[in-house]
Amino acid sequence: MSAQQTRLEISRDGSHTVWSETAGSYFHNPNGAVEESLYVYFEVSGIIRALQRDEDVSVMEIGFGTGLNLLLLADLVHQHRPDAQIRFTSVEAWPLPAEQVETLNYSSFLKNKALFAGLPPVFEQLHRATGPSKPASGSLGDVRYEVYNCPFAKLRFKPKRPFTHVLHDPFDPAVSPELWTPEVFAWLKSRCDESAVLTTFGASTAARASMAKGGWLIARAPGTLGKREMTVASLSEAKLRDFKRLNEARLTERWDAGEFSRKT
Question: Are strands 217-222 and 143-149 parallel, antiparallel or unpaired?
Answer without folding.
Answer: unpaired
